[in-house]
């Protein structure tokens, strides 16, 4: 049995680094901007990962006013507070967040088709 034990390869987890909760100096806090498809051509843009020190309702109010769309702030148990906007507003939101000085360009991830 000892020969068999030495021949069996040990399990390797390729995602161990991603799942680790170490806050190293190189880790960045990203703001994720996603699009979700609804019915037909309708879509929803979600913004997650903003720092908790910002007022989500004030940011939402400015976004709605600038882009002429409706939106809401949703509390998610896993993701925290998420801003939802009607329509495909990914590029508009990213430029707004950069110009307002809320996030840097390197810390924004845009997802979607």
From TrEMBL:
Question: For bias kind Polar residues, which ranges apply?
Answer: 1-10
Q: Matching CDD domains, A to Z?
A: eIF1_SUI1 (cd11566)
Compositional bias of type Low complexity: which residue ranges? 16-25
Read off the InterPro entries from this record: SUI1, SUI1_dom_sf, SUI1_euk
Pfam families (alphabetical): SUI1
The alphabetical list of record keywords is: Protein biosynthesis, Translation regulation
Q: Can the keyword Protein biosynthesis be found in this entry's annotation?
A: yes
Q: Which family does it belong to?
A: Belongs to the SUI1 family.
Its biological purpose: Probably involved in translation.
Listed name of the protein:
Protein translation factor SUI1 homolog 1
Organism this protein belongs to: Coffea arabica (Arabian coffee)
Starting at the broadest rank, the lineage of the source organism is: Eukaryota, Viridiplantae, Streptophyta, Embryophyta, Tracheophyta
Which gene underlies this protein? LOC140036637
């Amino acid at each position: 049995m000892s020969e068999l034990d030495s021949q069996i390869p040990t399990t390797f987890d390729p995602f161990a680094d991603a799942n680790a909760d170490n806050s190293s100096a190189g880790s960045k806090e990203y703001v994720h901007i996603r699009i979700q498809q609804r019915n037909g051509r309708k879509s929803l843009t979600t913004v997650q990962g903003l720092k908790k020190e910002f007022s989500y309702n004030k940011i939402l109010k400015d976004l709605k006013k600038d882009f002429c769309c409706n939106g809401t702030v949703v509390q998610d148990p896993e993701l925290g507070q998420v801003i939802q906007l009607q329509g495909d507003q990914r590029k508009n939101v990213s430029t707004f967040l950069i110009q307002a000085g809320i996030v840097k360009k390197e810390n924004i991830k845009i997802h979607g088709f």
